[in-house]
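Posting for a labmate who doesn't have an account.
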Amino acid sequence: MYFWRQILYELYMITEKDRILLESKGISEQQIAEQLACFEHGFPYLKLAAAASTDKGILQPDTDEQTFFINAWEAYTRTDNHIMKFVPASGAASRMFKDLFEFLGAEYDAPRTSFEQTFFSQLNKFAFYHELNTACRNIYRKEIPTLLEERAYKSIVAALLEKEGLNYGALPKGLLLFHSYEDGSRTPLEEHLVEGALYASAKDGKVNVHFTVSPEHRLLFEQLVKEKSGLYAKRYGVKYHVTFSEQKAATDTVAVDLNNQPFHNDNDTLLFRPGGHGALIENLNDLDADIVFIKNIDNVVPDKFKGDTILYKKLIAGMLVSLQQQAFAYLQLLDSGKYTHEQVIDILQFVQKKLFCKNPETKDLEDAELVIYLKKKLNRPMRVCGMVKNVGEPGGGPFLAYNPDGTISLQILESSQIDMNDPEKRSMFESGTHFNPVDLVCAIRNYKGEKFCLTDYIDRSTGFISHKSKNGKELKALELPGLWNGAMSDWSTVFVEVPLSTFNPVNTVNDLLRERHQ
């Protein structure tokens, strides 16, 4: 503690008010010192070996292999193992409506941009149209067609976004109406419940779904689950067990000014900000499960388009449990001590060719040293990640990267982790053939049935520093290593190509007008 306190004093003189705040959030002085040091020194770029592709690290199972893995998953669901869906759902939908907020504040009153014109011309195609019409009737005593005739466009947008209406500008995506059906409209939360029934149901018919939510919206999520889960349980013949958690206050990070000094609120307290989705590794670590599906809240489609999603979810899950079964068998063999040199070489080939982890130094290791190495690489969390062909979406991509121990393995990287001033690295990033759609299946127990401590596998040197503002003042914010980036850096990782039809994010409200959401 003395060491870290000395570092903290060198960077910033902590006050008694600071200590009280830190204690209330469960954050230590050591953590603050480490965070301030990150602002001072930044984060190192990762050393890349290559962009992953179907020639380097991204698998394309043929028809027979697909059938094998799907059958493997179906067999797994008939065991007593615990399956769960994990859905990060705390993100606010405000960015979805950025263009409409700008329209509300614009000097003109009629739609001018192509985005605005598209929104109003196809307004009746949105799943929330009827609820919005009701809101307009309650607020203005007029329905949407009348308001459109009167060119009262901003009144319609206000009814959609503001508190007096649907309040969509302040709600999370998971609670918005996305898709229309004959019997009503569905939210993303409901679509995830349906997905769970179709690929994550256990042999007893139980479907476990866990949503991470913001504290201010938790009650609304709970009410929606209470209202809707019985309907889908009856329709699909399952029993839902839905749980919630919130991002932990202890994972918040301190903000700094442009001189890297802690940023203070108007009441002279330190400003903390959520640590980004990487903080959710703590929530994932708390779950009691064997296999966990991870998927973003907004990447859902109506039932008529779910076929590919269900197929490939089962496929990548089947690949995961097949690889895990083999890894467990090898670990038990190594534990027994009754193995031959040839078997050790077979295990090394499995680590290199099936788990895509290579170590240039293994050729120099004696069998005893090699066994220690193999045990370490086999006995860790495992994930299989779907990858779609690159269509220019912002975000991370698949790479072969060097690890701190000198090994080369598959990683999902963000552009900020790559030295774009290096022409070779920039070329790797820009020529990448695939994109990370956040389509993961994870195995989080070891071969003895014990839960891994997932926080032991984080590469803490892979965080992000971003520029934000507070009350008109510029600041720098620190994001923890991303959930599927640095937070899972030391996992066994396998990439599989999945069709673009499984990737249907909703970044703007007009994305809901795309065919896959209609």
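Reply:
Got it, the structure tokens are right above this. The two ends are 57 Å apart (CA to CA).
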